[in-house]
Amino acid sequence: MSELNLSVEDGIARLQLNRPAVLNALSPGLLLELIDRCDELARDEMTKVVVLEGSGKHFCAGADLPLFIKRMETDPHGTADLGRRAAEALAAIPQITIAAIKGYCIGGALVLSAACDLRIAADNSRFSIPELDAGIPLSWGGMAHVVRLVGESLANDLILTCRRFDADDALRAGFISRIISAGEFAEEVTALAELVAAKPRIVLRQTKRKLIDIRAGTFDARDDAAEMIAAMADPEAMSIGQEYIRKNIGK
Question: Which of 3, 33, 53, 131 is catalytic?
Fold first, then answer.
């Protein structure tokens, strides 16, 4: 059985971490699968949205350290670098990505969710960055992601103390954008994915490129004019836009 399930329907892909017996802990094999699936999605011209989620009751309990330690006996650097490669592959795909967080979101799981464009959480979500307590530094590019999302002062607090925090804390910090009741979480995730996927493909891809450039410090607003012209020449974008105007302008 695969440790990572990929399904695609109506422009929405779901990447499901599939190790529920260990709270979807990240094995080296799962991360390699994630890199491969992201490579597939990077070539997918039709899919608009990717949802990253966990099977069962939890998003992910972080890295499966015993499996990492075993694999590092034969390939230390390659194994230690897998999480960075996976997070960067996820961040680079052209689709809009949504991390659907429920239950535990710990360590490396927090890094993967931070690599997504949107993060929403069930009200039963529990977060922590316990790496220093486990005797290792926060890696996989996690320092940069956490600082970018919550600011240096709070990031330092969370990383250095390893303290736990809940969905309310994550919302106040700006790590997530909304909290949803656990009982309604699956339906709300689907509704959000469908809402985004209903927008024109070209403008979603343009927006994703801007997000990637902003994060890399290479954004140039002089490119906006050409992108607007391209969108206004796109049949899907103009059809959706005209329908929006018909229904909303002047009402």
Answer: 131
